[in-house]
Amino acid sequence: MKRDYYEVLQVSKTTTEADIKKAYRKLAFQYHPDKNSGDKKAEELFKEASEAYEVLSDANKRKLYDQFGHRGLQGSGFHGFSGVDEVFDSFGDIFEDFFGFSGGRGRSRTRARQGSDLSYELEIDFMEACKGVKKIIQVHKSIPCPECEGSGAKKGSQPHICPQCQGHGQVRHNQGFFTISTTCPACHGVGHKIKEFCDECRGQGAVRTSKKIDVSIPAGVENGIRLMIHGEGEAGLHGGPAGDLYVHLLVKEHENFKREGEHIVTELAVNMALAALGGKIKVPTIDGEEEISIPEGIQNGETIVLKGRGVPHLRSKHHGDQIIVVHVETPRNLSKDQKELLQRLEESFDKNAPIHHNNKRSSKKKSFFG
């Protein structure tokens, strides 16, 4: 059974990102495989600390972990580390920041890097969020240069192997317990040098462009939800994969409906006579107008529930309900005849009858509107 990541790094749940990094640096140095050659226990603790750091140093993964624990990371693309080599591949830059070297035990390591992620805000209508919709967005991003296919070299020319690192991208030195691998200063870790730069990208290997991207928005999304489109971020460097595109949804408010999770809440004004006698009335739903029955004697603030007429739950066929909150309107500007009718009605009531307060209904109304 996996240990709690905060326990692994010996920090609290309120620890800052800087202190998490500091805690990981201490453990990474303590359990580094080069310092503990052949010690399987140290290797496992090194991997465990690295796994904890990968989650807690990422704001989104940390939020999922804080809410749902290890279970919340399932399906997020996180799988931990199968070996220390994976740690070095993922955290080579971190080790360079920590110790001034990659920590990769002298292994040659190309400097291919994943491209940066992109963020895009997309505003959609309330009904589009309820029903789902397909949108086309236009994103300004970098892509591998089509002229040189991302190499950065002029078409027809070939990069030559860096003479300083012999194509490894790193140079090695022995220092104490460690075999230190540092980024080659001549080729900046690429392993080769370009003689003639591509005219299109001037050796960068990528060009800026504007791309139309299809976004499929599932039914039931809420305001603030974030959709990930894999591989539609910035182009990777030196043959690395592209980053991802994160689409942040902003849902407009609706004049008739409010969201309460999967439920739709509406307010319905009825006159005093309809409330007293009951009857039929048409109300708006997210599927169109529908006729409902007002029960006789309904009170102000009471609710009528339309089962299954709310918003679909993401990733399931379940729907919420529509909650109709009834507001009984007191008439104003009555005519003389209307006043006389009401007066006769009032005189017919038993004035000694106790007044009943419907606290249950009042509390239900409060729960929907805070």
Instruction: Give the spatial strand order of the biggest sheet.
Output: 10-11-15-14
Largest sheet: 4 strands, mixed
Structural class estimated from helices and strands: alpha+beta
Low-confidence stretches: 99-110, 359-370
Radius of gyration (CA) equals 32 Å
Fraction in helix: 25-40%
Write a brief structural summary.
This protein is α+β, with helices and mostly antiparallel strands and 370 residues long.
Provide a descriptive summary of the structure in words.
With 370 residues, this protein is an alpha+beta fold. It has three domains: 1-105, DnaJ domain (Helix Hairpins, Orthogonal Bundle); 112-159 and 194-252, HSP40/DNAj peptide-binding domain (Sandwich), CATH 2.60.260; 258-369, Sandwich (HSP40/DNAj peptide-binding domain). Helix content is 27%, strand content 26%. It has helices at 5-9, 17-31, 40-56, 59-68, 84-99, 126-131, 272-277, 336-348, 359-369, and strands at residues 118-124, 133-144, 160-161, 170-175, 178-183, 192-193, 206-217, 226-229, 245-251, 258-260, 263-271, 279-285, 288-294, 303-306, 322-329. A four-stranded mixed β-sheet has the order 10-11-15-14. It has a three-stranded mixed β-sheet with strand order 1-9-8. It has a two-stranded antiparallel sheet with strand order 2-7. Strand 10 (258-260) and strand 11 form a beta hairpin.
